[in-house]
Design goal:
Number of strands: 15
Bound molecules: beta-D-glucopyranose
Shape: globular
Number of helices: 8
Helix content: 25-40%
Low-confidence stretches: none
Structural class: alpha/beta
Radius of gyration: 18 Å
Distance between the termini: 24 Å
Length: 257
């Protein structure tokens, strides 16, 4: 493919998950994908070097050397991973920005942010939280529970509300979508747990809106109506693309594009 420098208004977004790593070029002004998504299986073990190789592969297949943003399912403070709940423990303390940037032979700068935070940015700009004033909490239900806290569309990064304590357990071990799959739970049973969890978050933050994302948001009609909360709940709208779009926005804005 011809070299794409991605000048005006475009960035490459990468969504790093436990099973797959997806990437595409994004038009940052409209939040739409300019190229189809490319998906590569996450290497096992998913060590920093192995994942960096996949990042480089995605960029070279796209011929991309413009801004690059990548999501990662852990606390990322100024580019450094500070936790590893559902990923290889070798990530803790890794400067992920530097590791990915160094892996690109051209020194293309890669910026990394928490996966739920990226989804929050994307939903605030182009999805269910667009134009919503006040406090919005996005919760993603997948292997774990991710969270993004937004105030008038501005993100407060690394909230990690999936690790609140619920019934004496780490909340994501009780109410993540993976728990429903593993225990073969009905949506009714699982929604009760999600309701307990979200009531707890509601008591702590009194948000104006909850946005619920992750793979289960495509089945939102099966469980969101079962929730009994004072706060309105909207399913995420960008679905599969939220991470890619949010990462691309973060990269473009960091570079002042
Ligand atoms: C991690 C978060 C992540 C969430 C969703 C949690 O286990 O601690 O950083 O956002 O999973 O992937």
């Amino acid at each position: 493919m011809a070299q794409q420098h991605g000048g005006s208004g475009q960035a490459y977004g990468i969504d790093i998950g436990g099973t797959g790593i997806k990437g595409a070029i994004v038009d940052v002004a409209s939040g739409t994908l300019v190229t189809p998504r490319t998906r590569i299986l996450t290497p096992q073990p998913s060590t920093p070097d192995a994942v960096a190789e996949v990042v480089v592969k995605l960029l070279s297949e796209a011929g991309w050397s413009g801004p690059v943003g990548a999501t990662f399912p852990a606390v990322i403070q100024h580019g450094v991973a500070k936790s590893a709940a559902n990923v290889d423990k070798s990530w803790i303390g890794t400067d992920v920005d530097r590791c990915f940037t160094a892996a690109t032979s051209s020194g293309t700068e890669v910026i990394v942010l928490n996966d739920a935070d990226a989804a929050g940015i994307a939903e605030a700009r182009f999805g269910a939280a667009r134009g919503v004033a006040g406090v919005v909490i996005l919760l993603t239900f997948g292997t774990g529970i991710g969270s993004a806290l937004l105030m008038d569309g501005m993100l407060v990064p690394n909230t990690e509300l999936g690790h609140l304590e619920l019934d004496g357990h780490d909340a994501e071990k009780r109410a993540a979508a993976s728990v429903r799959d593993e225990d073969d739970m009905s949506y009714e049973t699982w929604a009760k747990r999600v309701n307990d969890y979200m009531s707890h978050v509601e008591r702590l933050f009194t948000p104006d809106l909850f946005v619920v994302g992750g793979g289960v948001s495509k089945d939102a009609d099966k469980w969101v109506p079962l929730l009994r909360l004072s706060t309105p709940v909207k399913p995420a709208e960008l679905q599969n693309d939220a991470g890619i779009v949010g990462a691309a926005i973060a990269a473009a804005e960091r570079r002042g594009e």
